Amino acid sequence: MGGRVAHYRLLVTDVDGTLLPPDRQVLPSVREAVRLARARGVRVCLATGRMWRSVRPYAEAVAADSPAVLFNGAVVYDFARGQVLERHTLDPHAARAALEVLRDFPDLRPHVFTLEAVYVDRLDAVSRAYQERDGIHAEEVDDLVDRLPPEPVKVLVVGEPRRLSELDSALAVRAPGLRRVFSEPDFLELLPAGVSKATGLRALCRALGVGLGEVVAVGDNPNDLEMVQEAGLGIAVANAHPVLKQAARFVTSSEGGEAIAEVVRRFLLDGLDATGR
Question: Residue 84 forms beta bridges with which residues?
């Protein structure tokens, strides 16, 4: 099917919507694809907006390699050794400014994350549904502005997409010291300035001694954009956001879940080039 024109040593995949299908159950075909890739000497790592406690079941399900990129690049965690390799935290003044803006959006639910804990101002149905989805537990505090925890790594705001778009515009003016990115239509993430999955990918490559040109990176949403652009081969899954499809060098025919098996077969086992030839 054509000669090998690239040798990739690392596959980095987003989790929700990419590694996982909508029901968030790892497919047997994906487990097998990851096993085959690792048997060929290709490391398989995860890059996610989740915290380690939330993503750990999926890392274990596919026997992913350490380290993992967490919190959309704010943390790189070597889970095999229990060591944080890199951590970026929110500027507290910028974080408080953003939370002040959120007081004008009482229907939206901000969740403040530290490395191992989550805080929310109100445990309403929106927050409970999110916590159940991601397998986490948030502590309710009466005022996130006054009780901002030490060394927060991100704020995740959950709500209706139209209202999140309005919040995004307001934050651009009133709290510009943070990076804002959508990880789902109903998730707006506030990150330390300059942080993305691409910065996490670079730290990951340094830890593993792998060049960026030797990386295949796969994603589905705008929070994956910089990572897909940075990798030697950036791939968007079939269900990806249009901005990611436009930036990717290849778009899978399969949606999240089966897409990872397709990527492994096409680029890591068959040795085809980025055009699929």
Answer: 77
Using alpha carbons only, give the angle 265, 133, 159 rounded to the nearest 5 degrees: 110
One-letter amino acid for residue 54 of the chain: S
Question: What's the pLDDT tens digit per position in 30-71?
Answer: 999 999 999 999 999 999 999 999 999 999 999 999 999 999
**215-219 and 233-236 as β-strands: parallel, antiparallel, unpaired?**
parallel
Burial of 81 (0-12, 13-18, 19+ CB in 10 A): exposed
What CATH architecture applies to the domain 10-87+195-269? 3-Layer(aba) Sandwich (3.40)
Of all residues in the chain, the percent with pLDDT exceeding 70 is 95
Return the domain boundaries, the chain: 10-87+195-269, 92-192
What's the pTM value of the predicted model, to 2 decimals? 0.94
| Helix or strand (DSSP H, E) at 172 | helix 161-174
Please give the Cα distance from 26 to 99 (Å, whole number): 35
Q: What is the CATH number of domain 92-192?
A: 3.30.1240.10
State both tokens at 75.
């943390």
Q: Which amino acid is at 235?
A: I
